[in-house]
Amino acid sequence: xxxxHTSSLPTEPLLLPENHLIRKLPVIGAVLAVLGIGGALAFGxxxxxxxxxxxxxxxxxxxxxxxxxxxxxxxxxxSWNIALRRIVENMAMTLPMLAVLFIPVLYFMGDLxxxxxxxxxxxxxEGKAAYLNVTFFxxxxxxxxxxxxxxxxxxxxxxxxxxxxxxxxxTAKRQSFAAPGIAIFALTLTFASFDWIMSIDAHxxxxxxxVYYFAGANVAFxxxxxVILLWLTSTKRQKAVGGIDRVVSHQVMHGIIRADHLHDVGxxxxxxxxxxxxxxxxxxxxxxxxxxxxxxxxxxxxxxNGWETSFWVLGFGHFLFPFLFLIxxxxxxxxxxxxxxxxxxxxxxxxxxxxxxxPMASHGGVHAHFGVTTAEILSFIGxxxxxxxxxxxxxxxxSLVPIKDxxxxxxxxxxxxxx
Amino acid sequence: xxxxxxxxxGYDVPGERSPLVTKRDKFHExxxxxxxxxxxxxxxxxYLLFGFCLSILGVLGISIxxxxxxxxxxxxxxxxxxxGWAIVNFVFWVGIGHAGTLISAILYLFRQKWRTGINRFxxxxxxxxxxxxxxxxxxxxxxxxxLYYVFPIPNQMAAWPNFRSxxxxxxxxxxxxxxxxxxxxxxxxxxxxxxxxxxxxxxxxRFAYGIVALGWRGSNRHWQHYEIAYLLLAGLATPLVLSVHxxxxxxxxxxxxxxxxxxxxxPYFVAGAIFSGFAMVANLIIIARWAxxxxxxxxxxxxxxxxRVILLTGSLVGxxxxxxFFIAWYGQNPNxxxxxxxxxxxxxxxxxxxxxxxxxxxxxxxxxxxxxTHMPTLFVVCIFVNxxxxxxxxxxxxxxxSRDFIPSSWAYYSPTFWDVSTxxxxxxxxxxxxxxxxxxxxxxxxxxxKAVTPAADPHHPMYEQHAPEEHEEETFDAPxxxxxxxxx
Lengths: 419, 488
Description:
The complex is a heterodimer of chains A (about 425) and B (about 500).
Chain A: H1 21-43, H2 48-75, H3 82-92, H4 95-100, H5 103-107, H6 109-112, H7 114-117, H8 123-128, H9 134-165, H10 168-196, H11 209-232, E1 235-239, E2 245-250, H12 259-290, H13 293-301, H14 308-326, H15 329-333, H16 335-357, H17 374-397, H18 408-413
Antiparallel strand pairs in A: 1-2
Helix pairs in contact in A: 1-2, 1-17, 2-3, 2-9, 2-10, 2-11, 2-16, 2-17, 3-9, 3-17, 9-10, 10-11, 11-12, 11-16, 12-14, 14-16
Chain B: H1 27-39, H2 44-70, H3 85-109, H4 115-140, H5 166-199, H6 203-212, H7 220-253, H8 265-291, H9 300-330, H10 334-345, H11 349-361, H12 369-373, H13 375-402, H14 417-440, H15 446-451, H16 461-464, H17 468-473, H18 478-487
Helix pairs in contact in B: 2-14, 3-4, 3-7, 3-8, 3-13, 4-5, 4-8, 4-14, 5-6, 5-7, 7-8, 8-9, 8-13, 9-10, 10-11, 11-13
């Protein structure tokens, strides 16, 4: 043997060093969450309901993207992802926290969903009342979170337990539960996006809407993952004698997560971004072409008060620029290039989520003009703080690499040859 | 040192993977086994099958001849059903083709090594399916000799096709798709043509294979160019898989007709296309592995994986049906709700329930690994899938048209003899091309399959069993050791 690229197979649990920043994240995250969410709710003004929902669905998408990652790669019996899977499993474990953070949305239901909360006199909304009513809405919401939290817990448990006993049955269990898990995931995500986002404009409907939210959520997830991986593999260099750089210290995952992993994460981000474009374009295009008022009205609402700008920003910024930038292999394999692409796409996803929610605020008697509110920024920071803190909490609790996963060796040794 | 795992192929335990070539996995044996198909004396069975397919092709010829002579009035089209079997068959065949491109391009980008065994066959199927598909738009125009009007050719009458029509986009999409598919297929064939050339025993064969092998010598430089060309073509073909069937779905979805106009159509059509195409590839592979004794190259693992893809895409199609139904109710548009209730319980309910049972219910048997690895079951279910997918296009096209907005214009559509004979005839075209393909072409990508044998992989566990101690002794990297220490 002695092949250079199979030599770093870890055999001991890889734990965070004592003084690592992630160990402090639960505290930092809690402070940010309290300040952010508290600030948004207390001082957010009349737009706080919509602003909070914007921040919430942004981070919910990242967590759901993480859950989908765990499900789909277990289902496919894939191996490239094993070295970074624990980090993602921990990201999916933010779902219980996000379930708690859904309470403000329930509190604001009267603002957000006032259309269908009072269907009286509107024959269309009265017709939908069998689905769009408070009781059924609450039952569905509870079901979504039960399924999501249950799956996040199940897949992490059977991954962490394997660290100690090395039993392959854990892998077998994960693989067989991933298939029905994907089906449940598809349905719950779809109806959640219908309930929480699409029903803000209770008249409007699109069969594509669930796929739209799914695609964007995955772009955001891979962007967050790329940022995390770049951080956890970074090195500190110092100029040594003769002007040659020397690595003086490095982050905890350095040497485990390799350029090939980062490249693959970049490719998934790039691929999902094209998928997002495909879905977004198809939805818009079919509605534009048919020009049926009951469908075009949604776009009319989302073009009001200057929000048309977001639409064009998304067309160029969410698709064209990142497409031209990230298509290059060299960019995806360069740490700076990947970081720039990921950060940009996160910004774009934020604009996308904002565009879905905020323009509709104007239909509740308040005026939401194009721009960013303080409440949005505070909500984004607050929910994000809770997300990061919860993730950090789980990162401290187990090995950072599933050391006894039977596919780990493949994950540590594969190479991205050409593609 | 062939040491094969003791579990049956396709029944791999977690952490291990069934080999992609079983039993005869030496490089020379693979060459022999694949080339034998094209080199052996023509078997009697081939003549029988070829003769049969040719006569069905004759049916196609007669049907088209009569159509050109008489006009499209010989079909069952009526008012309001102005789109009948021609568009149904077109979408059916284009959809079949998609699996080939998915296997050869998308699975290549996803580094799915199992694709190598079946990609040649699947790509051939793509090209023949696209040929069958193109028959229908060509002949349905009535005056076939004016077909060139679909191309934007400058002319003295300044008559241009309507650029805002998805039918015109179809012309571009399908012709680009066909061209790239042929190019992709041919590039992959070059090294294997060279193998056949080098093994040729007659001058004619050597000459013919020599021409199509384009002077391939297998040098390092050749392989480097080949790999880059292959990757670029895979990258080009990948968006085509999505774009072609999306544009086909636009043919319906840009309209305002209930049942046609819904935003999920593009990905839903793509999933359906891959679904039907995989079923067709699986059917053909099951026949080929039995007829040419290639069970060790088209292994159970390949078919197991294909059955999984069929289950997945079938469920995606089921998801799309469910969304359409839900939104038809949720939208509270009476026309839309009517279109869907009419589908399920109207006068085409029989077609609708054939579609649902074949497309959504029948593949559910693939939750069981036994069913996925049992060839007769797999074969029958794949046939069901193809029947179901044909009916899907029929249901979409005909139910929405036959009962449109004005009840006084409603009419029931049924095909005539000539509708049926034309469709059956395209199977003759498909079968004839397939027969010629298996007779004269290397039906497996020889060079690629060799690269995925256990022998080609120095890290394959099968070979590492002989030196396990050596591997365990290896210590991990210094950085990791440092981290582990820091953690204590």
